Amino acid sequence: MIKTLGVVMGLLFLLGGIIGFVPGVIQNGLYLGIFRVNTAHGIVHIFSGAVFLFASMAGPRAIRGWFQIFGVVYAAVAAMGFEVGEGLICGVISNNQYDAWGHAVLALGMLLVGFFPRRATAAASCQRLRAEIARKVR
């Protein structure tokens, strides 16, 4: 399940980043008339999408790790975005309040996926642990 989610996120980020380079999509520096974007912003989204896809192919542990890293990085980007307001994050990535909120929502979602495993996964881990303890006790 997490691999599928990783592929979907990767494709969405790639698509979103690539669409930002299509003439006419960006008007007055705004993507969809809402998000302030520039070339660096689009490249970051394309890079994020590519890493999502590579991590998804590498397996569940890799994609979970990327969700965790992605969540922490985007939380930092959101915090910097709120601080910068209408301007550039790190002097490079364009930002407005909608970008900051978008990054905050993405960060929250990715952190939840990355750090809180599904119940089935947690239950399976508990079963393995009980079996290992029972084997050592014998």
What is the overall pLDDT average?
A: 88
By helix and strand content, what is the structural category? mainly alpha
Kindly state the number of beta strands: 5
What best-fitting shape do the alpha-carbon axes yield? elongated
**Helix content, binned percent:** over 70%
Q: Which residues form runs of ≥5 with pLDDT under 50?
A: none
Strands ordered across the widest β-sheet: 1-2-3
Q: How would you characterize the overall build of this protein?
A:
- With 138 residues, the protein is mainly alpha-helical.
- It has one domain (2-137).
- It has five helices and five strands.
- A three-stranded antiparallel β-sheet has the order 1-2-3. A two-stranded antiparallel ribbon has the order 4-5.
- Helix 2 (39-58) runs antiparallel to helix 3 (60-84).
- The longest helix is centred in the middle third of the chain and has 25 residues, at 60-84.
- The radius of gyration is 19 Å and the shape is elongated.
- The chain starts with a helix and ends with a helix.
Key descriptive features of the protein:
73% helix; 5 helices; 138 residues; 3-stranded antiparallel beta sheet; 5 strands; elongated
